[in-house]
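Hey, sorry to bother you again with one of my protein questions. A protein chain has come my way and I'm curious about its shape. It would help a lot if you went through both lines with me. I owe you a coffee for this, so here goes:
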Amino acid sequence: MNTRTSRLRRGSTSAALAVTLLAALLTGCKKAPDPAVAAAAPSVTMGTQLDDTVITAAVKQALLADPAVKSFELQVQTRKGTVQLAGFVETQAQIDQALAVTRSVSGVSQVENGVSLRAGSSTLGSRIDDTAVTGRVKAALLADADIKSLDISVQTVQGAVQLTGFVDNQAQIDRANTLAAAAEGARSVKNELMVKR
């Protein structure tokens, strides 16, 4: 057997071993699903997820294109055609316009309004503080085994923390609220989380 063939066999054996070890690790680390959570969270097909992603992108584009709302950082999440808007704006007219723009997007079946009015103007220092609070809340959500923090958007304005998104059950909503309220610098929590349908 020549040296080249020997190296190829060793390389393919090493690759096969690496794949086998990776599969074993992933299988070993996989946590069995909690039957209560599985029953509480209806399944979503790949097609529905794709549709929701397209709707979210279309809503964001429509909001950005509208001169009355394009400058505002609004969070947009979609689940089965229900769009949840969140964030902070200056006037009620801006909230109304954001809702009208969102309703006009094809595929939107329902709009949940989680947009709040800002309480006064913010300074650079308060924006830095708010960023730190948001980071603390996100870290707490990420560290908690019962919360899927990737499904939760967190925004903070002048110490007021806003939670939005879709979660599996009411227990996750309550737990997220508790964690956000306990974060250093959080003055209040507006919990707009919704249970997945």
Q: What stands out?
A: The longest strand covers residues 82-89. The longest helix spans residues 3-29. Residues 1-30 form one domain. The chain has two domains: 1-30, 35-197.
